[in-house]
Structure formats: C-alpha cells, structure tokens
Design goal:
The structure is a single chain. This protein is α+β, with helices and mostly antiparallel strands. The chain has one domain. The chain contains six helices and six strands; from the N terminus they run H-E-E-H-H-H-E-E-H-H-E-E. Strands 3-4-5-6 form a four-stranded mixed β-sheet. A two-stranded antiparallel ribbon has the order 1-2. It is globular and about 40 Å long. The N and C termini lie far apart (30 Å).
C-alpha cells in the first residue's frame, strides 16, 4: 500500500473550507516534503481525504508530487478528477494519459482535469459539472 511519505501536494491543490484555504495555494500548515504541522488536529476534510494514489495503490511514477497532480474521485464516486498543480499545467495530464485511456475505455468513467480555474473532460459519456 502506498503512503504519503513526504508528498504534500494535496495541501496545495485542494481547498479546505474549515481552514478557509483556497485551491491552488499552499496551506499555511503544510510543511512541504514533510507533512502537516497540525496533523493530530487537522480538519475533517483533511482527515477523510485520500487520493487515488493511496487508495488504488497506483505505481510510484503516479505519485502526486512526481506528476504534479492529485487524483481523486467526486463525492459520489462517479468521476475521477485530476487536480493539476497550476505551476505545471499539462504535466500531470501527459504523465497519466495511459492511465486515463484505461479508465475511460468503456465510456462509463469520465476524467475531469482541473488546472487553476479551467476544467476539461477526458472520455466523458456525460458532461461533468464540478463545484
């Protein structure tokens, strides 16, 4: 099973309402390459989040800090979302393109790529709206 082990990219690309932390900016509690300074007291959103690299045991070359993007699912699990680091636009999409092809092959799964404020859908059977 994969572990974070110094990867903190979710602390940048994801928003955390409880901390009033916007997407695409580093959390003030993140210690890059180390982890969370308030790990024991981190908010519910952070406690319950697990990227697909962790939950699906993806290979080491798909680790978020290596591809500059965090893979997750929508709350209902119907879509995969790639939260790309806006400092590296397109890098994660390219690095994960083979994985996306496998996921979307049957047309039942869509991948949404979010880079900053822009979003695009890969292999979508139905349009995806994210908030």
């Amino acid at each position: 099973m994969n572990i974070c082990s110094g990867c903190t990219l979710c602390c940048k690309v994801l928003g955390v309402e409880e901390l009033a932390k916007a997407r695409d900016v580093w959390c003030c509690h993140a210690s890059k390459g180390t982890g969370c300074a308030i790990y024991a007291e981190r908010p519910h959103t952070c406690r319950t989040f697990a990227c697909l690299w962790l939950t699906q045991n993806l290979p080491p070359d798909a680790r978020p800090d290596r591809v500059h993007g965090v893979l997750a699912t929508t709350d209902d699990g119907s879509h995969v979302v790639l939260h790309e680091d806006p400092g590296w636009p397109g890098y994660a999409s390219a690095a994960l393109s083979t994985f996306f092809s496998t996921l979307t092959r049957d047309g039942k799964v869509s991948v949404v790529v979010r880079t900053g404020e822009s979003m695009r859908t890969v292999g979508a059977a139905i349009p995806v709206v994210l908030q």
